[in-house]
UniProtKB/TrEMBL annotation:
Any one GO MF annotation of this record: hydrolase activity, acting on carbon-nitrogen (but not peptide) bonds
Name this polypeptide is given: Amidohydrolase family protein
Every Amidohydrolase-related domain range: 53-401
Oxidoreductase in keyword set: no
CDD domains according to UniProt: Met_dep_hydrolase_A
Keyword Hydrolase set for record: yes
Domain of life: Bacteria
Gene3D superfamilies: Metal-dependent hydrolases (3.20.20.140), Urease, subunit C, domain 1 (2.30.40.10)
Membrane-crossing segments per the record: none
């Protein structure tokens, strides 16, 4: 399969500069850029007439199995039913221009293989399996009066409980055995969990280090759910590569991020959406009341991190019917950042986080041929990415999949 885009404005995300020219894709990769390119017979040619072309977007924090905001209910759903919902959610993500996503717990090798084999339409899926949680932690969805916990491997769900160093090692090894691209740990309380506090720390340092050791041994890394500076700093000290959310960080956290060369993945849009629509899509009342604790702090944390030179990736963390707001994260971040910096978080920054620099998030020769043809310049108007209707074409692996 071969594709040639003529007369494009090709964005170099690293420099923030456009160059006029053509771009040719073959066998799923970008093989040539420049002026006046020619292509073999049978190549599909699209004259984009001066339209901006940017790399395909990467969302580094999604839950493609989260058809409801009541995460605790997913574990009792039939895996086939969850997969059906996931295929719809993933197709809609691709239609919004997200050609790769990193799932932050819930997705498994079955969904990743189905997408790779063309059985379902959606972004390239980097999965972690089930997130690791201590008893009473962010992925323990039992109420106070429930004692039984079913972690049977056939069940859907976003997490598994592992207490103690040996159990954490075994759980991490098990997810890695199944092909996890990263390990997710719950290092603080959260909104969706019923019995913890957002300001709690979770897992001992030895347990956190055990997860990091196992991921490192497999040439993988650990992502940690954490909100407060105390929880974030502990996770970074343990060797975690990416912090998810981080709404309540302080200057000491910024210093720790820079020192450890770690990434922050803010997810501002999920709190905006949960506040507006959470209960309508299944978020329990007890969880909805927690949203205010992190909603206002998110932008402050992002601005602090950006000013301090922290590596950033784009993430959304949306649930249920709120997935449709995925692109609104661009507009929220532009309240404190420039459009090019937000676009970098969704391309080169996220690619570096997942260990695919030069393969994703760029229009360089040799990269996966994932790109978007837009009807306006997102560096002048972020609405081109934040609002529906501005994508002329979505190209994934060299094939036009939308538009």
């Amino acid at each position: 399969m071969s594709l040639l885009l003529r007369n494009a404005l090709l964005l170099d995300v690293a420099s923030g500069e456009y160059a006029e020219g053509d771009l040719r894709c073959a066998d799923g990769r970008i093989v040539e850029t420049g002026r006046g390119l020619t292509a073999p017979d049978g190549t599909r040619v699209i004259d984009v007439a001066g339209a901006p072309v940017v790399p395909g977007l990467i969302d580094a924090h999604v839950h493609v199995t989260a058809s409801t905001a009541n995460l605790g209910s997913i574990g009792s759903m039939a895996p086939s039913y969850v997969a059906a919902h996931s295929s719809r959610i993933m197709a809609e993500m691709l239609g919004r221009g997200f050609t790769t996503v990193r799932d932050a717990s819930g997705a498994d090798f079955g969904l990743a293989d189905a997408q790779a084999e063309g059985l379902i339409r959606g972004p390239r899926l980097l999965f972690c399996g089930k997130g690791l949680s201590q008893t009473g932690g962010h992925a323990d969805f039992r109420g106070r009066g429930e004692n039984l916990q079913d972690d049977h491997p056939c069940c859907a769900g976003v997490g598994r409980i592992a207490d103690g160093v040996d159990a954490v090692r075994a759980a991490a090894r098990d997810e890695l055995r199944k092909g996890a691209h990263h390990i997710k740990v719950m290092a603080s309380g959260g909104v969706a969990s019923p019995t913890d506090r957002i300001d709690s720390t979770q897992y001992s340092m030895d347990e956190l280090r055990a997860a990091v050791d196992e991921a490192t041994a497999a040439n993988r890394y650990v992502a940690a759910h954490a909100y407060t500076a105390r929880a974030v700093n502990r996770a970074l000290e343990a060797g975690v590569r990416s912090i998810e959310h981080g709404n309540l960080i302080d200057d000491s956290s910024v210093e720790a991020f820079v020192r450890h060369e770690a990434f922050l993945v803010p997810t501002l849009v999920t709190y905006w959406a949960l506040k507006e629509e959470g209960p309508a899509f299944g978020l329990p009342e007890r969880s909805w009341r927690k949203v205010d604790e992190v909603l206002e702090a998110g932008l402050v944390a992002l601005e602090r991190a950006a000013r301090g030179g922290v590596r950033l990736a784009y993430g959304t963390d949306l649930l249920g019917g709120m997935h449709r707001h995925q692109s609104h994260e661009f507009r929220l971040r532009c309240e404190v950042q420039q459009p090019i910096d937000v676009l970098r978080a969704a391309t080169t920054g996220a690619a570096e986080l997942v260990g695919m620099t030069g393969e994703l998030g760029t229009l360089d020769v040799g990269a996966h041929a994932d790109l978007l043809v837009l009807d306006g310049d997102p560096l002048r108007d972020i609405g081109v990415l934040a609002e529906a209707g501005h994508l002329r074409h979505v190209v994934q692996a060299g094939a036009v999949v939308s538009g």
